[in-house]
UniProtKB/TrEMBL annotation:
<dbReference type="GO" id="GO:0004856">
    <property type="term" value="F:D-xylulokinase activity"/>
</dbReference>
<comment type="similarity">
    <text>Belongs to the FGGY kinase family.</text>
</comment>
<keyword id="KW-0808">Transferase</keyword>
<dbReference type="Pfam" id="PF00370">
    <property type="entry name" value="FGGY_N"/>
</dbReference>
<protein>
    <submittedName>
        <fullName>Carbohydrate kinase</fullName>
    </submittedName>
</protein>
<dbReference type="GO" id="GO:0005997">
    <property type="term" value="P:xylulose metabolic process"/>
</dbReference>
<dbReference type="InterPro" id="IPR043129">
    <property type="entry name" value="ATPase_NBD"/>
</dbReference>
<dbReference type="GO" id="GO:0005829">
    <property type="term" value="C:cytosol"/>
</dbReference>
<keyword id="KW-0418">Kinase</keyword>
<feature type="domain" description="Carbohydrate kinase FGGY N-terminal">
    <location>
        <begin position="7"/>
        <end position="214"/>
    </location>
</feature>
<dbReference type="InterPro" id="IPR018484">
    <property type="entry name" value="FGGY_N"/>
</dbReference>
């Protein structure tokens, strides 16, 4: 039996850790999922169970290599960012993979920003809002001043995608998509590390930067597969769209956070944009991507619970509610406000209340997306993730942007596919596919 040539991709989120095998047409031919119980760092704060993750990578690969159906030609990684794995000369992890939500000491934060020009000016250069531990460079700054002995032992600090790559290749590299994601490390005005990275000796702990399509041989004799350097998950999810569409677009990636990504907007962030949760990513080709964030998925979840409790209904029913323009017309003269402040007694049914919730969320989404849209040639918005399946949200978004084409985009595992596409030429002799994204158009009907 002829083996199927495949690329293996580890897609590691905060909750779910998945392994996918894609064939040469980027169809999923194998999938394995795992979840681990978090462990605690030295302060008792929850953090990733790094040892369980490491063992799971090797166990999963052993399973795949034993499977006679597949010929693994390459391996790549797409994971959440904003955290470093610090390794010593032998490649052993020296410290936990700290949680990016870990509280950051105020005194140390003040010391840093006072030294390097103040919060506003510094954030502007690095396209990084002040986010504490979520600015992963600040984790290394903290180690230097709070745990100097540990800092001295660090050979390399690797973002999680690059650490997983290191486990298989034995080669330590840095990747621009991880470095360029609200880390406080990258000066977007100079297209290089910010001066503080050199002044504090952080640069000596960072592995050489390689392009996102770089591959290395595996660190195991007798194996011929290529190993990618890994990508940050948000940037990886953008790759299929950049490969598939040449005309300028915005990708609205929806989940707990709704992130508007504009790869055709390289304008520097303004102080106002930074205050309103705008930031910049670097996409896999090294170009800036202006982005804005809205906590819409979380808000939606909390308010749906409130509606269901008030009307004594099942939350699951809201997933199949149809868009009703007559309800929208009846609600259009209400004052715009945060839905959490609305009195549910004012709505005769849960269907009407739910339309009101989505109207309020789309109003906020319009403001958020417009921040990265203005002064660009964008003509299309692609929506992926949870809200792309919500017909009320999609119809109202199309109404909010009548001058643009709005599409619900559906593709299986965009993050993992993006990681595979980034190293396409290293394992796949077929041309790039042009049919991996299914689009549904929503007209801006009145």
């Amino acid at each position: 039996m002829k083996k199927i040539p495949v690329v293996a991709v580890f897609d590691v989120g905060k909750t779910n850790k998945k392994l996918f095998l894609f064939d040469e047409r980027y169809k999923i031919v194998f999938e394995r999922s795992a979840r681990f119980t978090e462990t605690l760092d030295e302060d008792g704060d929850p953090c990733e169970n790094l040892e369980s993750l490491r063992l799971s990578v090797f166990d999963s690969l052993r399973e795949v290599f034993r499977n006679p159906e597949f010929e693994v030609r390459a391996i790549n990684f797409a994971t959440y960012g904003a955290s470093f794995v610090c390794i010593d000369e032998e490649g052993k992890a020296l410290a936990p993979l700290y949680n990016y939500l870990k509280a950051y000491p105020e005194a140390l934060k003040k010391q840093f920003y006072d030294t390097y020009g103040g919060e506003e000016a510094f954030s502007n250069l690095t396209a990084s809002p002040v986010l504490g531990s979520l600015n992963s460079g600040m984790q290394l700054y903290r180690i230097k001043y709070e745990r100097p002995e540990l800092f001295r032992q660090i050979r390399y600090a690797l973002h999680l995608p690059q650490y997983l790559s290191y486990l298989i290749s034995g080669k330590a590299y840095s990747d621009i998509t991880s470095i360029g994601c609200h880390t406080n490390l990258w000066d977007f005005t100079k297209n290089k590390y910010h001066d503080w990275v050199y002044r504090e000796g952080i640069s000596e702990k960072l592995a050489p930067i390689v392009p996102s399509d770089t591959v290395m041989p595996a660190n195991f004799p007798g194996n011929s597969y290529a190993v990618g350097a890994g990508l940050h998950d948000s940037s990886s999810a953008l790759v299929p769209y950049l490969v598939s569409f040449n005309e300028p677009f915005i990708l609205l990636s929806t989940g707990t956070w709704c992130i508007s990504l504009n790869p055709f907007n390289a304008a520097p962030l303004t102080p106002e944009e930074l205050k309103n949760d705008c930031l910049c990513y670097l996409q896999y080709e090294g170009k800036p991507v202006k982005a804005s964030r809205l906590f819409a998925g979380y808000i939606h979840e909390q308010q749906v619970k409130r509606i269901a409790l008030h009307f004594r209904t099942d939350m699951i029913s809201y997933r199949t509610f149809a868009y009703d323009p007559s309800i929208v017309a009846a609600l259009k003269n209400e004052v715009v406000m945060d839905f959490s402040e609305r009195d549910l007694q004012n709505y005769p049914s849960d269907l009407i209340a739910y339309h009101r919730l989505i109207l309020d969320l789309v109003h906020q989404q319009y403001i958020s997306t417009t921040m990265v849209l203005k002064d660009t040639g964008v003509k299309r918005i692609f929506v992926d993730g949870g809200f792309s399946k919500n017909t009320i949200f999609m119809n109202l978004l199309a109404r909010a942007f009548p001058g643009l084409e709005v599409f619900a985009a559906h593709m299986a595992q965009a993050t993992a596919v993006g990681s595979a596409l980034a190293i396409h030429k290293s394992w796949n002799a077929k041309p790039m596919p042009n049919d991996i994204i299914d689009l549904k158009y929503y007209a801006a009907s009145r």
